[in-house]
Amino acid sequence: MTKTAVITGATSGIGAAYAKRLAADGYDLILTGRRQEIIQKLADELADKHKIKVKVLIVELSDDNDIQKLIDTVTSTDDMEVLINNAGFDPDEKHFMGMEFRDVERMIKVHQIVPVRLAYAVVPKMEKRRKGTIINVSSAGAFLPSPNIVIYGATKSFLKMFSESLYMDLREKGIKVQVLCPGLTRTDFHRGLPEERYQKISSDFHWMTADQVVDYSLKCLKKNNQPICIPGMRNRLYSALIPVLPKAIYYRIALKKAGA
Fold it and tell me: Contact 221/180 with Cβ under 8 angstroms?
């Protein structure tokens, strides 16, 4: 029996790492990205190495027409078994009033609307097969309100709550739901930073590689006893401590760290 996985934001980083792992497990793939040459090279390599089918969709997931293009592809694929919502939106400026409002709307669309629409499209097929997996890539920032990432943190927090609720809604229907909340990860997502700043922070030993993050995600998935997956001991510690820390104390710490 054939099985297909769709991975958004699969050009590099965490999305590409998932693509490599699922290809090795025999999944046909539907990959989305924006950098044609890079993602097509990945697709060709995986198709040749693992003898699978790989379809590439070059889409901008903040564009309604491109979103519909992806939805149409997904709904026409009968053997849909895995959905990985990994695509992210990284504006030049992350402070709320420093962002163009169109970028605020685009981030909300990519981080919230697209994952919900894709889940809505794949769940009926998964229910019919009594088998399926949905992984929504959130962030450790979903637990950590910050003045530096107002919309980013808020959208990732939504994705966390959506995933937890969906997990409870679907757990008796043979469908696994995970929200992956990685901390600092070495991917192209941070390449928009000035080179000196990028080299400095990416050398921090707390950073994880995309492969390490995906390995932990798939390890969590096998347990399937709770939907939240947080790679890295430090990140798990923060996520446990922050909710019980008095808000006034947390705000002072967060503002100091942000340099506010």
Answer: no
As given in the structure block, the two tokens for residue 77 are: 């694929």
**Cα angle 168, 173, 179; round to 5:** 45
| C-alpha span between 177 and 84 (Å, rounded) | 10
C-alpha torsion sign, points 10, 15, 20, 23: negative
User: Do 206 and 254 form a contact (C-beta atoms < 8 A)?
Assistant: no
Q: Give exposure, 16-39, as e/b (b: 16+ Cβ within 10 Å).
A: bbbbbbbbeeebbbbbbbeeeeeb
Structure tokens at 183: 């901390």
The answer to which of 57-61, 132-136, 144-148 has the lowest mean pLDDT is 144-148
Choose the weakest-confidence range: 120-134, 156-170, 208-222, 226-240: 226-240
- Residue 83 tokens, joined: 């959905």
Give the per-residue pLDDT at 195: 52
Task: Domain ranges for the chain, please list them.
Answer: 4-258
Facing residues of 55 across strands?
30
What homologous superfamily does CATH list for 4-258?
Answer: NAD(P)-binding Rossmann-like Domain (3.40.50.720)
Our answer to whether residue 198 is catalytic in this structure is no
**Percent of the chain's residues with pLDDT above 90:** 72
Sign of CA dihedral 137, 143, 145, 148: negative
Q: How confident is the model at residue 260 (pLDDT cuts 50, 70, 90)?
A: low
Cα distance between residue 46 and residue 3, in whole Å? 15
CA dihedral 168, 170, 171, 177 (to 10 degrees): -80
Catalytic residue among 152, 198, 216, 251: 152
